[in-house]
C-alpha cells in the first residue's frame, strides 16, 4: 500500500505552504492482544474528518516553530511536540537535502489528549509538508518508516482516507467506497491519557472485527455494521472519566444514529442521518454545554486537491 498524502491546503497566506491535519476517528476499535514489548494489538476502522488542525511552512533564516488556536496554550513548542520531532527526523533521514531553515506554524483546533489523533495527524502533516517544502524525492517507504518512529498512529495519518488498521497500527488496508458520514465531535473539556486507559483495560484479548460488508453501502448499512462492533477502550475510559457517559447520552438524545467514544477518549462521535441534523445537534449541545468542545463536520475519503499558495 503506497502512502497517499492529504495534499497542499488552499487559502494559506502568500509565501506559505499549508497542509491539513484532520481529526482521526476510530469508528470501531477492538483490542485483540498484547505483544511482549507492551504494544497492544488492535483492529480498527479509521476515518478522517474535514475538520482539524492546520500546519504551515515558509522559508526563513533560522528554524522556528509556533502555535496558535484555541488549544495552543496546552501544547509544548520544543521537542515534546511531534511536529518538531518530525522535522528533526526528516533532517536526520535526508541530510543536506533537508537543510534549508523552515518556519513552521501550527493552528491547533483539536483538543489535546482527546482520542482523535491530533498529535499524530500533526506529525503526519509535518512529514508531508516538509517533503514538499524541501522538494524531497521521499519514497513512501521512507516516510512510513519515519512515521512509525514517531508513533503507532502516525502511519495511518499519512493517508487521510478510510482504513482498516491492524497490529500496532502499521498494517493498513484502504477501504474504498465509504460515503461521507455527517458527524458531531464532542469532548467534555477534560484530557484523558492513553496509557491510563490501557492500564484500566481488564481484558486485552478480545474478538477481532467482523468482516466488513458495507463497501459502497449507504449510511444505514454502515451504521448497522458498526453496531456489531465495539470500542474496547470505552469501558475503561468511562471508569476513569464518567463524564464520557453524559456526552454519549447527549449525542443519542439529539438523534445520533450511533454514538461511540473515539480511540482512548474522551472525544465521542455521533453519526447523524444528514448534515442539517448534525449541525442542529451540535448547536443544541454547544448551547447547553458551552465548556465542551463541539464540532459538526463530516468524514471524508477523498484526497484534497493539491495547491501551491
What is this entry, summarized?
By secondary structure, the chain is of the alpha+beta class.
Distance N to C terminus: 29 Å
Helix content: 25-40%
Stated plainly, the CATH topology of the largest domain is called: Ribosomal Protein S5, domain 2
Cα-based radius of gyration, to the nearest Å: 19 Å
Counting DSSP H or I runs of 4 or more residues, the number of helices is 9
- How many domains make up the 3D coordinates? 2
CATH architecture of the largest domain: 2-Layer Sandwich
Q: What coarse outline follows from CA principal-axis ratios?
A: globular
| Largest sheet data | 10 strands, mixed
Average residue-wise pLDDT: 90
**Low-confidence runs of at least 5 consecutive residues:** 302-309
Secondary-structure element pattern, one letter each: EEEHEHHHEEEHHHHEEHE
Derived structural class: alpha+beta
Amino acid at each position: 500500500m503506497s502512502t497517499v498524502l492529504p495534499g497542499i491546503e488552499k487559502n494559506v497566506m502568500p509565501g506559505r505552504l499549508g497542509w491539513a491535519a484532520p481529526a482521526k476517528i476510530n469508528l470501531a476499535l477492538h483490542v485483540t492482544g498484547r505483544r511482549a514489548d507492551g504494544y497492544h494489538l488492535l483492529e480498527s476502522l479509521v476515518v478522517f474528518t474535514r475538520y482539524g488542525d492546520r500546519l504551515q511552512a515558509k522559508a526563513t533564516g533560522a528554524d522556528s516553530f509556533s502555535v496558535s488556536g484555541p488549544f495552543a496554550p496546552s501544547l509544548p513548542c520544543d521537542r515534546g511536540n511531534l511536529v518538531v520531532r518530525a522535522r528533526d527526523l526528516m533532517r536526520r533521514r535526508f541530510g543536506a537535502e533537508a537543510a534549508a531553515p523552515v518556519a513552521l506554524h501550527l493552528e491547533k483546533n483539536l483538543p489535546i489528549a482527546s482520542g482523535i489523533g491530533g498529535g499524530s495527524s500533526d506529525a503526519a502533516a509535518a512529514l508531508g509538508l516538509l517533503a514538499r517544502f524541501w522538494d524531497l524525492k521521499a519514497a513512501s517507504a521512507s516516510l512510513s518508516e519515519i512515521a512509525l518512529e514517531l508513533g503507532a498512529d502516525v502511519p495511518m495519518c499519512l493517508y487521510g482516507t478510510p482504513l482498516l488498521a491492524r497490529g500496532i497500527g502499521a498494517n493498513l488496508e484502504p477501504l474504498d467506497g465509504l460515503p461521507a458520514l455527517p458527524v458531531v465531535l464532542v469532548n467534555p473539556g477534560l484530557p484523558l491519557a492513553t496509557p491510563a486507559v490501557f492500564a484500566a483495560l481488564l481484558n486485552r484479548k478480545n474478538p477481532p472485527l467482523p468482516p466488513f460488508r458495507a463497501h459502497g453501502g449507504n449510511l444505514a448499512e454502515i451504521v448497522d455494521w458498526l453496531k456489531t462492533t465495539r470500542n474496547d477502550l470505552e469501558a475503561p475510559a468511562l471508569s476513569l472519566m464518567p463524564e464520557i457517559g453524559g456526552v454519549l447520552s447527549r449525542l443519542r438524545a439529539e438523534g445520533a444514529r450511533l454514538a461511540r467514544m473515539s480511540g482512548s477518549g474522551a472525544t465521542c462521535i455521533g453519526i447523524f442521518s444528514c448534515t442539517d441534523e448534525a449541525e442542529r445537534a451540535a448547536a443544541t449541545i454547544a448551547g447547553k454545554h458551552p465548556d465542551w468542545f463541539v464540532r459538526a463536520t463530516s468524514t471524508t475519503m477523498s484526497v484534497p486537491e493539491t495547491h501551491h499558495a
